[in-house]
User: Which sequence fits this backbone?
């Protein structure tokens, strides 16, 4: 027995156990490298830990009535390389002080020899009580396995954990638990860095089914499910294969990360692909091939999860067996589910495939499809061939799927889930599971398209009208809104083919519209939307919306109100469907402003953006009178402002500037004013100071030091040599209380500009993992505007702290004057546009030199 000082008195034993554990793990890892068999690895590691724990247990003075059990995943006899070892120390009665101390020493030694344990110490009565209160405890105990000690006590606990409780309550709790877990992962297996254990389509989905089946007495493995009629033998083989794939992924991840890591991070995807024998193709990285394989397996897991949950629900939840209610000769409603008349329906009547989905949309009282309907659909996807696609009735039914008032999003997701959409539209099939390494899409291409369709659909639903009222109003007034769903389905369908996906997608959309008998007018709208689905976003975020020429050209492009509304709605949905991080109130305001301005132009009105200077000044004067300023007080300031100022600033900004500056048009010290942004959370800051060579650089440095990012900048120089600059700022962390920092900005920046201190360089931040593994090659373009008066500088680079400061520094060094800045951040990618001028831009050699300097500064 180990004495009171186990570390010293029995050091040889502890050293021996530590060595056995280390060598055993190394042996298993080497065997894995030679021949990666998940079952052998998981069981072998569990057995190794069993042996070490048992020997250590027997060396301790524990009561003979106590027992040691493996619970959780370890209880199943499976252990991943860096997973916790879940243990239960079971006692007949409450431990005395001496026993408690002994158990504490034992647990400490578990860690000392190299085991990361998660343990609990309970009596049998406490286990039963906790299991009754907590579904997680009950789940852990379901797979409890006796290791050593009092075998009778262990048997009693195992028997109690698998009987004597409400299976219905357990089922409902586990299903709710799964829904909450899905919510944490945005209800999709298709994020770019999924968790192979917890994400939808991961190992937890399979384990959840086994736990429920085990609790209900239907077995604890896939072969047992076949015996109980839950799976066919073919399905059992398929699910075995999928499970082994996911296990292999998780084991390899643990070894690559050298820690417990279940996320398929970009850091490991390429190495993981190599370990799994996956090679790159001519057009795709090995990691992309791996991830597409992962997504296809995850899709199958979610299919089996749905099938088995429904099968178990029919056996566990009460409801009787009411007679089916016929819908037509092919389908009926059974317990709220759509059921087929016979198992051979789809093979004898293939047109019923689309009819099934249409009935789901037309009958909102249906909560889903029966298990046999889903199984039949999965098998029927192989019937969708060229003959099926050319069948006029199938084409008609497919178009009808876009039209009902309910269920469009759900059914198109189901069409994709069961492989039917990709079979009917082969172009769509190519993008299923396809990753997007543009650093702002967080979903695969097919899931992004589903998100865009979902966003569009919500505009038409009354319960979501409060989210985006203007979009809801436009959608409800749009004739044949189902055309917009088709445009959403096709807008990115040509991604990954090489070339311009908008142009390539146009052809797919045109062919589809022709084959499905759409009118020339409707076809033209869909094809135009696919071609131009990026245009509105680019104009809104990269062009000067105060420039009348920009508005007129965009109005000419859209041509009429119907095209404008359609493009606005699609653009809104597309940006929101990329990533929660990409969408913000600033982008929403930009595209809404562009929509509203263009709408008025198309109706023949003159919005302020296309009004002349006289009309703008008149509007501004009217508002100044509203604030109590007498006529003419603004004259001294406005005489120093040229036409360009009045064109580039909206009426609200002109009035704000005048109110702050009318009595000090030529101040000795800088005037700094800040106010909450009129667009969303953020700040609008006005800087009025004598213009100096590096003023913009100093401002960028100051804002960067405060942790604020610049969303928009308007730079203007007055006739008498003052800079009148306006910035929209926000805190990327989302933690800032903007009103509280207004006095700080106004005071500190004023003080800063009164000194000759050099520009304060913002602190450099850490690059994201995405940028490390998928770096962005900087792009720099300098081209003259149409009038040859200014130059347009466009950059695309990896976003990072201090990026704008670096650009401003280079421009300052080359004597380039900055007039406006459009800052657009798409996830990890910055796409910024600047209007610049300067003597050096008149020579091609100087422009090339400037571009090179910017390229170098933007490298990471």
Assistant:
């Amino acid at each position: 027995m180990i004495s009171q000082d186990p570390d010293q008195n029995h050091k040889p034993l502890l050293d021996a156990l530590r060595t056995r554990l280390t060598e055993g793990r190394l042996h298993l890892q080497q065997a894995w490298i030679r021949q990666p068999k998940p079952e052998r690895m998981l069981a072998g590691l569990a057995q190794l830990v069993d042996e070490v724990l048992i020997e250590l247990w027997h060396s301790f003075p524990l009561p003979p009535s106590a027992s040691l059990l493996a619970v959780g995943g370890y209880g199943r006899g499976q252990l991943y390389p860096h997973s916790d070892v879940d243990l239960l120390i079971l006692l007949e009665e409450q431990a005395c002080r001496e026993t408690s101390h002994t158990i504490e020493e034992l647990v400490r030694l578990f860690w000392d020899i190299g085991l990361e344990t998660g343990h609990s110490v309970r009596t049998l009565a406490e286990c039963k009580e906790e299991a009754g209160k907590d579904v997680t405890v009950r789940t852990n105990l379901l797979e409890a396995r006796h290791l050593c000690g009092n075998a009778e006590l262990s048997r009693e606990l195992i028997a109690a954990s698998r009987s004597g409780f409400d299976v219905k309550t357990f089922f409902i709790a586990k299903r709710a638990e799964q829904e909450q877990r899905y919510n944490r992962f945005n209800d999709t297996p298709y994020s770019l860095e999924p968790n192979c254990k917890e994400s939808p389509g991961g190992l937890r989905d399979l384990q959840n089914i086994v736990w429920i089946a085990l609790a209900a007495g239907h077995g604890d493995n896939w072969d047992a499910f076949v015996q109980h009629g839950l799976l066919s033998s073919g399905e059992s083989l398929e699910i075995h294969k999928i499970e082994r794939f996911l296990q292999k992924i998780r084991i390899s991840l643990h070894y690559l990360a050298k820690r417990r890591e279940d996320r398929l991070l970009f850091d490991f995807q390429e190495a993981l692909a190599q370990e799994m024998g996956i090679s790159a193709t001519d057009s795709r990285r090995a990691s992309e091939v791996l991830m597409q394989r992962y997504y296809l397996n995850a899709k199958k897991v979610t299919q089996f999860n749905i099938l088995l949950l429904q099968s178990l629900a029919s056996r566990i939840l009460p409801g009787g067996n009411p007679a089916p209610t016929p819908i037509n000769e092919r389908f009926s409603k059974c317990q709220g589910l759509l059921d087929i008349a016979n198992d051979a329906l789809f093979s004898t009547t293939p047109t019923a495939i689309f009819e099934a989905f249409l009935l789901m949309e037309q009958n909102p009282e249906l909560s889903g499809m029966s298990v046999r309907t889903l199984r039949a659909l999965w098998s029927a996807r192989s019937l969708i061939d060229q003959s099926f696609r050319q069948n006029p009735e199938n084409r008609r039914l497919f178009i009808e799927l876009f039209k009902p008032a309910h269920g469009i999003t759900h059914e198109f997701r189901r069409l994709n889930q069961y492989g039917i959409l990709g079979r009917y539209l082969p172009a769509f099939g190519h993008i299923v599971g396809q990753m997007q390494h543009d650093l702002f899409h967080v979903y695969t291409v097919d899931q992004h398209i589903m998100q865009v369709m979902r966003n569009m659909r919500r505009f038409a639903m009354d319960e979501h009208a409060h989210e985006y009222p203007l979009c809801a109003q436009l959608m409800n007034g749009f004739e044949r809104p189902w055309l917009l769903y088709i445009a959403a389905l096709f807008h990115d369908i040509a991604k990954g083919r090489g070339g311009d996906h908008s142009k390539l997608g146009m052809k797919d959309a045109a062919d589809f519209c022709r084959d499905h008998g759409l009118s020339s007018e409707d076809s033209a709208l869909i094809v135009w939307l696919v071609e131009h689905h990026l245009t509105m976003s680019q104009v809104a975020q990269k062009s000067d919306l105060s420039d009348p020429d920009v508005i007129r050209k965009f109005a000419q492009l859209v041509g009429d109100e119907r095209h404008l509304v359609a493009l606005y709605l699609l653009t809104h949905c597309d940006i929101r469907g990329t990533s929660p991080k990409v969408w913000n109130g600033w982008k929403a305001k930009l595209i809404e402003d562009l929509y509203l301005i263009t709408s008025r132009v198309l109706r023949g009105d003159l919005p302020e953006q296309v009004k002349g200077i006289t009309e703008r000044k008149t509007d501004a004067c009217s508002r100044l009178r509203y604030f109590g300023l007498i006529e003419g007080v603004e004259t001294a300031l406005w005489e120093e402002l040229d036409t360009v100022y009045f064109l580039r600033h909206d009426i609200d900004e002109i009035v704000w500037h005048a109110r702050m500056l009318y009595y000090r048009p030529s101040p000795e010290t800088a005037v700094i004013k800040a106010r909450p942004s009129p667009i969303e959370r953020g700040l609008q800051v006005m800087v009025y100071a004598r213009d100096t060579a590096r003023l913009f650089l100093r401002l960028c440095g100051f804002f960067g030091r405060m942790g604020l990012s610049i969303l928009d900048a308007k730079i203007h120089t007055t006739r008498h040599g003052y800079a009148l600059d306006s910035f929209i700022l926000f805190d990327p962390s989302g933690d800032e209380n903007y009103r509280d920092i207004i006095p700080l900005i106004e005071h500190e920046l004023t003080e800063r500009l009164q000194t000759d201190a050099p520009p304060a360089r913002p602190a450099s931040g850490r690059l994201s993992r995405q940028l490390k593994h998928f770096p962005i090659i900087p792009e720099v373009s300098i081209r003259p505007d149409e009038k040859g008066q200014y130059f347009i500088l466009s950059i695309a680079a990896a976003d990072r702290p201090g990026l704008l400061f670096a650009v401003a520094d280079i421009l300052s060094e080359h004597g380039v004057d900055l007039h406006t800045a459009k800052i657009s951040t798409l996830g990890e990618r910055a796409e910024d546009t600047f209007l610049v001028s300067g003597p050096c831009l008149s020579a091609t050699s100087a422009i090339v030199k400037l571009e090179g300097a910017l390229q170098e500064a933007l490298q990471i």
